[in-house]
Amino acid sequence: MGARRAALTVAALLGAALALVIALRTPWQPLPVPPGGRTPLDPGAVLSPDRLATAEAFAAALRPASLAGLLLGLAVAGILGLTSLGGRIVRAVARPLGGGWVWQVLLGVLALSVIGRLVTLPLAAYGEVVRHRYGLSTRSWPLWARDVAVSTAIDAGLTAMALLGLVWLIRRAPRTWWAWAALAAAALVVAGSFLWPVVIEPAFNRFESLPAGQLRTELLQLADENGTPVQDVLVSDASRRTTALNAYVSGFGATRRIVLYDTALQELPDDELESIVAHELGHVAADDVLTGTLVGALGSAAAVALLGWLLSWTPLLRRAGVDSPGDPRVVPLVLFLAAVGTVASTPVQNLVSRQIETRADVHALDLTHDPEAFAAMQRRLADINLNDPTPPAAWQWWFGSHPTAPQRVALAEDWARLADAR
Ligand SMILES: [Zn+2]
Predict the structure, then answer these.
(1) How far apart, in Å, are the Cα atoms of 96 and each of 99, 100, 104, 106, 161?
(2) Which residues have C-beta within 8 Å of that of residue 60, sequence separation ≥ 6?
(3) From the CA of 364, how far away is ligand 1's center (Å)?
(4) Section 280-304 average pLDDT
(5) Measuring CA to CA, which residue among 146, 156, 234 is closest to residue 197?
(6) Fewer CB within 10 Å, N side or C side of the chain?
(7) What residues are neighbours of ligand 1 (ion), with CB under 5 Å?
(8) Is pLDDT above 70 for 1?
């Protein structure tokens, strides 16, 4: 079998394995239908008429900018990746340093990342203006600029490392590189999901232990009841950036901890905070990070095998002005294909995510037995975070990682009706 056929076959097999894992591990019906059917959705039960109008206006102001930013990013990546322009930039930026392939890859990724960032910067700034106008962002402009610079640098740095490894492999093993790269990509996803809480989180926030007291005791107890004890309850200084309320559980085994946004600690009554934490503990109990890691590992391995197939397609290389897959000028093409793959896989990821989030909601209700606090928390979050309670169906399908607030409030109602019927 030729290397080209082999790459396509492996991509198809990994894709089938991925589909199987998704089909089997996704909770397609986290809560049975209560007698009398599901509670109808009612945005009016979530937000006051005033806030509903504000939330819809906010979404209407932000949505076109988000979409335009996404499309513009793709278009620029396409222009750089599907013409010889990107390759010429890669050559040019490395020339002062001798023009070796390593410098071409490293500086090329850096230059392309900066270009991509600058092109979409006005739209990102506009988005920040809108968030400021609606009182959702508390970031000063210098802090915003620093966040953009830091996240672009981290992004570009990681991408440069990945592409350096990729091009090195292609040059080392011109026929089988995609198989090694697929293995490496899967391993990186696994390592990344362990390293994220240790490396990335601290780059953006500072954490302090929640002092001893009733809330701390109750949260630790909730974690114990869940069968997933935590080492500590931390408070992050999220208020430096945002008014959004959140909490999450990160780490594994002995390093597992609950993290509360300081905003949530300030704004939420204890029972609602417990509902949020119980939801997060639901993710832990169902091993959602593990499922996510497995899906991510299979998905990226499949994507790399597919890349192996695409980069052996001469017309595509010629279009990008590239001599062979090991030519460092392949970088813009790879970045474009990665961007397309990311956008195309978003609806599948979000479909699975919404189901998993619903299961964590059901878990929170099972753990706290407090649908009132859960619904009150959802109303408050919708009110403060201004989440659009009525997004267009296509938007929610593509970009919605969580059920909408009316869906979550109706879920609590369903849960209570099922509990009554029991
Ligand atoms: Zn969640």
Answers:
(1) 7, 10, 11, 13, 21
(2) none
(3) 10
(4) 94
(5) 234
(6) C
(7) 357, 360
(8) no
State the burial class of residue 204 (Cβ atoms within 10 Å of its Cβ: 0-12, 13-18, 19+).
middle
Contacts 24+ apart (CB under 8 A), 251-254: 251/197, 252/194, 252/289
CA angle at 361 for the pair 359 and 367, rounded to the nearest 5°: 100
Ligand 1 centroid to residue 360 C-alpha, Å: 6
Give the closest residue to 361 by CA, choosing from 413, 411, 286, 418: 411
CB 348 within 8 A of CB 22: yes
* Residues above pLDDT 90, as percent of the chain: 86
CA distance 359 to 29: 8
CA of 260 to the centre of ligand 1 (A): 14
DSSP 3-state percent helix, strand, coil across the chain (nearest 5): 75, 5, 20
pLDDT digits (tens, 9 = 90+) for 219-263: 999 999 999 999 899 999 988 877 778 899 887 777 789 999 999
Terminal-to-terminal C-alpha distance of the chain: 60
| Centroid of ligand 1 to alpha carbon of 33 (angstroms) | 21
Q: Quick count: other Cβ atoms within 10 Å of Cβ 112?
A: 26
Q: Which of 336, 337, 332, 344 is nearest to 309 (CA)?
A: 337
Global pTM value: 0.89
**CA 51 / ligand 1 centre spacing (Å):** 24
Q: What is the CA radius of gyration of the chain?
A: 23
Question: CA 84, CA 329: separation in Å to the nearest integer?
Answer: 8
Backbone angles phi, psi at 234, to 5 degrees: -110, 155
**In the structure encoding, which two tokens stand for residue 18, read together?**
């991925």
The whole-angstrom distance between residue 323's C-alpha and the CA centroid of its chain comes to: 35
